[in-house]
Amino acid sequence: MSSGARGRFIVFEGGDGSGKSTAAAAVAARLEAAGQRVVLTREPGGTPAGEAIRALLHHRLSPWAELFAFLAARAELVSTVIRPALEGGATVICDRFAPSTFAYQVHARGLDPVVVRTANRAAAGGLEPDLVVYLDIDPAAGLARKAGEGPAVATGQEGLEFHRKVREGYLLQARDDPARWAVIDASLPAERVAELALERVLRALR
Ligand code: TMP
Questions:
Q1: How does residue 1 score in pLDDT terms, banded at 50, 70 and 90?
Q2: What is the pLDDT of residues 142-163, one digit of tens each?
Q3: Which positions does UniProt annotate for ATP binding (predicted)?
């Protein structure tokens, strides 16, 4: 059942170890405490099939296989979770979405942007974020934060050079779409990062 207006779609992005999952959860909790209906989800994952695809992505796949695994998880998440929640009027906060694909698979892995754009549009059903909150961090610092963690998606295991390209890929997207992207310095203390992110999200929800 629809409650009238479509909800807003907010995406948190950042390199590995940027703290975006913590910030996304903090913002979602603050909005819920203020009485908003919020759906917090993540990519890859957010559905039983998506979580199974996440486990598959612990394997190092060939680049196109990796791309389509991420897109399969996205297609499932959009059609079964994100779209229905937005249509019901909820605010959806998603920990990663298409900007990750352009930073990791296009900019860092080197896949053809035209093909990826078309495939992504099909997977996402044309859905685009209303706001992208990007937590920017020096990849060396991000990787140091993640060091010693358990098994991870293979992209997170790549070296510093790869993660430098990922950051470049994010910054290019932010530069091309400044109205929709909020860039936050993720080297700040986590509470300050969450505060800055919340400010931007509240502005987008007005
Ligand atoms: P995270 O959820 O712990 O940040 O890890 C997810 C990993 O998956 C991270 O290294 C980024 C990567 N990723 C891609 O390479 N492409 C994508 O489209 C998505 C959603 C994630």
A1: very low
A2: 999 998 888 799 999 999 999 9
A3: 14-21
Based on the structure, what is the number of domains in the chain? 1
Does residue 186 lie in a domain region? Answer: yes
Does the annotation flag 14 for ligand binding? yes
Distance, first Cα to last Cα, the chain: 23
CA 131 to ligand 1 centroid distance, Å: 18
Where residue 74 sits, what CATH number does that domain have? 3.40.50.300
pTM over 0.85: yes
CA of 96 to the centre of ligand 1 (A): 7
- Which residues span the domain enclosing 187? 9-205
Residue 156 Cβ < 6 Å to ligand 1:
yes
Please work out whether the CB of residue 170 comes within 6 Å of at least one atom of ligand 1. no
pLDDT of residue 150: 82
Q: What is the spatial order of strands in the sheet that 38-42 belongs to?
A: 38-42, 91-95, 9-14, 131-136, 181-185
Q: How far is the CA of 34 from the centre of ligand 1 (A)?
A: 30
Where does residue 17 fall: left (phi above 0), alpha (psi -120 to 50 degrees), or beta otherwise?
Answer: left
